[in-house]
Amino acid sequence: QVQLVESGGGSVQAGGSLRLSCAASGAIFSINHMGWYCQAPGAQRELVADIIVGGSGNYADSVEGRFTISRDDANNMVYLQMNSLKPEDTGVYYCSEDVRTGAARPSRQYWGQGTQITVCS
Q1: Contact 71, 96 (CB under 8 A)
Q2: Of 1, 21, 27, 102, which is least surrounded by CB within 10 A?
Q3: What are the tens digits of pLDDT across the range 49-93?
Q4: CA angle in degrees (0–180, nearest 5) for 33-29-115
Q5: Rounded CA gap, 7 and 116, in Å?
């Protein structure tokens, strides 16, 4: 069983910064893809940033230049550094990872429980 747990969320004033962390635990052999998603009030869940092993971050147009995704494969961690936050960034943020639980097994997508980010003007 694989579990993802987000941390670092909360409330912040516009222009401030937050750093989200997502820790993966369980029977993990490797993690190919890591991503952060946001579900704003009244909207569907959308990809914010993602990264594959050995690659660089990919970002939604709305956050490019402000957010940075990074991964620490040695510790099964993915981070989202969020700078210059705007009220429009408010929403529930989820981490999602494609995890292999064995060398001969295909990857499977797992989701965290989500963490609330509120940006106040």
Answers
A1: no
A2: 1
A3: 999 999 999 999 999 999 999 999 999 999 999 999 999 999 999
A4: 50
A5: 10
